[in-house]
Amino acid sequence: MDGRALRKSRLFVWALVGACLFLSGSCHFMRPQSPAEESALPIINKVVVVGFRAAMSQAEEPEVIRDPLTGAIFSAEPVSRHVVQEMNEALFERLVAQERYQLISPNQAKGVLSGIAGLDSSMGTGPLEILQKVGKRFGADAVLAGYIYRWREREGGDYAVRRPASVAFDLHLLRPGDGSILWKGRFDKTQRSLSENIFDLETFIKGGGRWMTAHKLAMLGLWKLVTEMSAATRGSEE
User: Fold this and answer.
1) 3-state SS assignment for residue 204
2) What is the CATH T-level fold of the domain 44-232, as seen in this structure?
3) Helix axes 106-120 and 127-138, enclosed angle (nearest 10)
4) Bridge partner residues of 47 (DSSP)
5) In this predicted model, what pLDDT tens digit does every residue of 2-42 receive, in sequence order?
6) What is the C-alpha radius of gyration for the chain, rounded to an integer number of angstroms?
7) CA distances in angstroms from 43 to 39, 52, 126, 167, 173, listed in the order given
8) Nearest-angstrom CA–CA distance, 143 and 132
């Protein structure tokens, strides 16, 4: 791309930014309050962070599947164990940094989860019931668990891609006693250029105007979900 074309491209992008700001005032730099935030949940102190699991193993073919806990539909692809571990570490680090809950780590929960799942597999026990048993075993107020449905890396560099990054995952905060879903959050995003989606200015700005890696895109989504969950729950100090 020569200098003149590059300048035209930049002018076009910032013209779109200006139009977005003019049309929407602040273009939603402040996220609208969710129903969960308007009505805080019961006090939640001790949380078992089971963390993420891959919705599809690497031996499976991509397809549209349902969330085992809520029935929500996702376009899913195989996800590696490395990605699951990476996301679980990031999730736990963000929760620890908030200093809001008494936490049971994914590593602590893993052994109990495996034992319960192994004993119950022959009885056809569903994932919700297994998570309830894990929460009860630790005497927790809630269990936090979710699935990663897609982790597609970008093809290209920071400023030009053949295929953008795409990630999809969800989180559920459930009560061990009755299995009710206290809070749930979903992040399902394929990055697009600002010219393709002028109203996704937030992602454009947080990505520094660049094409993000799958990791960078996922971290934006993870921070968003953890923040929303914390806003919807209360600790005993309140």
Assistant:
1) helix
2) Rossmann fold (3.40.50)
3) 130
4) 103, 142
5) 445 444 444 444 444 444 444 444 333 334 444 433 455 67
6) 20
7) 12, 24, 27, 32, 13
8) 8
